[in-house]
């Protein structure tokens, strides 16, 4: 079962950077992003 990780931040560049850094773990979890909580 693939788990989901949600990243919430107002800074779009930070969201993209974190998502790209976590892509290597795509077999373990999927990253979901939101710009506003």
Automatic annotation (TrEMBL):
Sorted alphabetically, the Gene Ontology BP terms of this entry are: phosphorelay signal transduction system
The family database entries (InterPro entries) matched by this protein are listed as: CheY-like_superfamily, Sig_transdc_resp-reg_receiver
| Occurrences of domain Response regulatory (ranges) | 4-37
- Protein name in the entry: Response regulatory domain-containing protein
Please give the organism.
marine sediment metagenome
């Amino acid at each position: 079962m693939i788990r989901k990780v949600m990243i919430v931040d107002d800074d779009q560049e930070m969201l993209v950077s974190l998502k790209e850094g976590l892509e290597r773990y795509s077999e373990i979890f999927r990253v979901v992003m939101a710009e506003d909580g």
